Amino acid sequence: MRQNEKPISRTVLFYIAMFCLCGLGLMWVLKRGAQLESHPINTPVASVLEVKSVGITSALEANLRQPLGLLLLQLLVVLAATRGVGALFRKWKQPLVIGEMVAGIMLGPSLLGWLFPGITKAVFPDASLETLSMMSQLGVILFMFSVGAELEINHLKRWAKTSLVISHAGIAIPFVLGSALALVLYRPLAPPSASFVVFALFMGVGMSFTAFPVLARIIEERGLGNTPLGNTAITCAAIEDVTAWSLLALIITIAKSASPASILIAVVLTLLFAGAMLYLVKPSLARLLAHSETEPFREHRALGICLFLVLGAAFCTQAIGIYVLFGAFLAGAILPRDPRLITLVKEKLATLSSNLLLPLFFAFTGLRTQVGLLGDVTAWGYTLAIIGTAIAGKLGGCYIAARWSGMTRLDAFTVGSLMNTRGLVELIVLNIGYDLGVFSPSIFAMLVLMALATTLMTSPLLSLTERWRR
Amino acid sequence: MRQNEKPISRTVLFYIAMFCLCGLGLMWVLKRGAQLESHPINTPVASVLEVKSVGITSALEANLRQPLGLLLLQLLVVLAATRGVGALFRKWKQPLVIGEMVAGIMLGPSLLGWLFPGITKAVFPDASLETLSMMSQLGVILFMFSVGAELEINHLKRWAKTSLVISHAGIAIPFVLGSALALVLYRPLAPPSASFVVFALFMGVGMSFTAFPVLARIIEERGLGNTPLGNTAITCAAIEDVTAWSLLALIITIAKSASPASILIAVVLTLLFAGAMLYLVKPSLARLLAHSETEPFREHRALGICLFLVLGAAFCTQAIGIYVLFGAFLAGAILPRDPRLITLVKEKLATLSSNLLLPLFFAFTGLRTQVGLLGDVTAWGYTLAIIGTAIAGKLGGCYIAARWSGMTRLDAFTVGSLMNTRGLVELIVLNIGYDLGVFSPSIFAMLVLMALATTLMTSPLLSLTERWRR
Fold it and tell me: Phi and psi dihedrals of B283, rounded to 5?
């Protein structure tokens, strides 16, 4: 085409002529059309939108008060806070998640809302929280799916003996200690809607979680990835994850159900769901997603199947009444361990959700956390008791079990320190308790601080063990 | 550790002992705690959640009526429809987007809502549309960002001469024809809130868009990627995109503003914004994202910068009052053309949004499209007139300009057919018109059908030219 291109002047001529003609045409159309306006008062469109022309500022404000403008503002604020504080904590050799947790709390009534209540109210008005909550939930669902997909099932088989004991000790012991603590905390802190049994069970389960993803990242960062110690810790965390989420599903059922019969129904339905996922969905998935090494990986198709799987599983668990995240986690765990598939889920599907939607979850949790409620010495005493119990139960429990199964003191302490990391997973569990009305705002704030403290201490503790080793 | 592992019996013993002890401990705690319940009536948590234990079905229903359950259901339905119909149309050698457009229309009042109005009302109740709309908007914002990032700016320089004339002819001619058609359609179809000028301008701009991403995909699928013809077409579409979005921004300003002064302010602000993006943000981006070839690509950082950029630009355009997508598109267009960065945006950032959020946009458009409104022969006559004008203006306009600049008849026809593809971009523009109150539901339905028809005909037309070539 370039070869037989006509001289440029001819093209320019055409261009100018076209514009003149079209311009004239448009003018004629608009002139003719003016006669068509037979509407009694020629209302400008602006009036429909209720934009008043009273200066720039008010017009700008009106544009921003629309839901989309507000959502964009919220996303920007949350991103700036989590990224900024996250970068700060990273400088101090802390995992990113700590910074994000702290940033969320800073946006809520504990800092920003306390210093400038007007700003928090303007950026996060109550009416906008529904959309924000939905988006953050979607982020957490996809996050749990990728946690399930990351689960090292092969490890689970190879390192099972020792790890099973350690991880179950790391659930049972903090669980009992947590529920014993409930004896002290129930009277002063439990909301009137929560019965003691439910409160105690939630306090117990709230102590028993380990942040699998944070732990996995710390192990990688510290170069423990392929050591027996690192493998044991990863396997412990994996077993712990499966056990603790199943336990939580049961406790949620007990908390929500009014009668023993409905608890039984929910348990049966959950078992049926888990059975169907493991024995019907898992084999068909393997067939659907089967690929020979030479065949190109059909990404669009695999993405569709993954999305159906995770949304469908989340939907089923929501219908049963246990938590959506149980389904999302199970969906990830039954994915075929094709490395291309796991990479797709971890690196492509989860990119947007972990960079944009998950920070919303931290902000959402922060908006609920009122550190200001811990006004007096007693409250801070309770908080310290909770943190102490959590550490004693988890770090201590894992240490004892690890020593008993023959580990050295240093190794046992390292595994215990790693398992003590609560991270984001703990925040998810606390929010479930809050939504169910089991936790009051003040005990919620205390438990959030516990999650922060136990996550914060992991890196220093590990540095300590490294120094001891030398 | 494995070597000096203690005999298994010892571990089993510990495990059993631990469980017995912890079990007894928990029982004691729960028994003691029962005395603590001093609340007058021991309300079970269930009552807080208003779940009544009247059988499984109603419990399931209650769980699903919660916003998260509904959202999951909507996502599943939309995914199933777009994926299913998309696969069907793919079999017929049509681009995926056609299937997704049709699926969206099928979910709305045109098919599902007409056959089973109860289902549409139950799955997409009005109260849930706000969240759905926000999520689909976010999807479209990220989509426009990746369209901008895909924009072949180097092509733009190399093939500019011919392409500029063709693409501007492909805007000016359908624009004038579309606004001339408004002379006929204004009286019977325009909503009372729209003045003739605004209606005619929107009819014009509605005819002038080309679906850049659909066109790019078709060119790739047909193996035209590196031919002069394919390059000219891609460049035409790129120039068209930039021009048409700028034009739309201007027309939206005219539509929204009550006085000439506020139009002027918006235009000045838009120019300031575009200038700042091009001359301040673009150079700093290049510096922020600069990487030597050997250095590892810092993905987390790049993702953060991209998200800030696109959300910030969208926020600014929302504040000015032109459409958010103008900002998102510009943000993509000024990204440094580092291939790793473009891959990151296209393949990672956009994966979730184009697979999950964008289908919501099709569904959202479909829920507004009431093909049933075209009840009589006159309405279908108008629809045909609109489709005819759109084709004559775009395909015809581009053909004439291409012939004039020296292309063969066959090449000119091929370029015209490609530029005639409306696709998703057209739906975005139509929704803007609908939101502004410029399009009535019936003319909205007609224009959606026009978008469908022009997208649908591209593949057959190209197959025709291929047969002629042989």
Answer: -65, -40
A4 pLDDT exceeds 80? no
Q: Give the CB-side neighbour count of residue A292, counting CA atoms within 13 A.
A: 2
Q: What pTM, to 2 d.p., does this model score?
A: 0.84
CATH topology of domain A104-469: Na+/H+ antiporter like fold (1.20.1530)
Burial class (CB in 10 A: 0-12, 13-18, 19+), B138: buried
Distance from CA of B116 to the nearest CA of A (A): 23
Backbone angles phi, psi at A85, to 5 degrees: -65, -35
Using an 8 Å Cβ cutoff, are B394 and B420 in contact?
A: yes
Give the span between the Cα atoms of B85 and B101, in whole angstroms: 9
Residue of B68, B70, B142 to mutate, interface with A, max A Cβ within 10 Å: B68
What is the model's pLDDT at position B42? 45
| Separation of alpha carbons B17 and B450, rounded Å | 74
Query: For testing the chain A interface, which of B22, B171, B183 should be mutated: the one with the most A CBs within 10 Å?
Result: B22
Domain ranges for chain B, please list them. Answer: 100-469
CA dist B407 and A45 (Å) reads: 43
Rounded Cα distance between B325 and B339, Å, is 23
A256 contacts B45? CB cut-off 8 A: yes
Per the CB < 8 A criterion, the answer to whether B151 and B163 are in contact is no
Residues B296 and A108: their CA atoms lie apart, in Å, by 36
Task: Return d(Cα B67, Cα B62) in angstroms, integer.
Answer: 11
* Angstrom distances, CA of residue B453 to CA of A127, B12, B433: 40, 71, 19
Q: Which two tokens stand for residue A193?
A: 């809607």
What is the residue type of A17?
A
B188 in contact with A at a CB cutoff of 8 Å?
no
| ipTM of the modeled complex | 0.83
Say if the Cβ atoms of A134 and B67 lie within 8 Å.
yes
Measured CA distances, B420 to A347, B215, B417, B462 (Å): 36, 9, 5, 11
Yes or no, beta carbons of B195 and A44 under 8 Å apart: yes
Q: Which residues of B31-66 are buried (b: 16+ CB within 10 A; e: fewer)?
A: eebeebbeeeeeebbbebbebebeeeeebbebbbee
pLDDT digits (tens, 9 = 90+) for A43-91: 444 444 444 444 556 666 666 667 888 999 999 999 999 999 988 888 8
Neighbours of A10 (CB within 10 A): 13
Distance CA(B446)–CA(B433), nearest Å, equals: 13
Q: Is B391 strand, coil or helix?
A: helix
Q: Give me the CATH topology for the region B100-469.
A: Na+/H+ antiporter like fold (1.20.1530)
pLDDT in tens, A364-418: 888 888 888 888 888 999 999 999 999 999 999 999 999 888 888 999 999 999 9
CB A393 within 8 A of CB A175: yes
Secondary structure (DSSP) of B45-96: HHHHHT---S-HHHHHHHHHHSHHHHHHHHHHHHHHHHHHHHHHHHHTT--H
- Cα torsion B249, B130, B430, A37 to 10°: value is -80
DSSP code, position B225: T
* CB atoms A175 and B64 under 8 Å: no
What sign does the CA torsion over A424, A426, A428, A434 have? negative
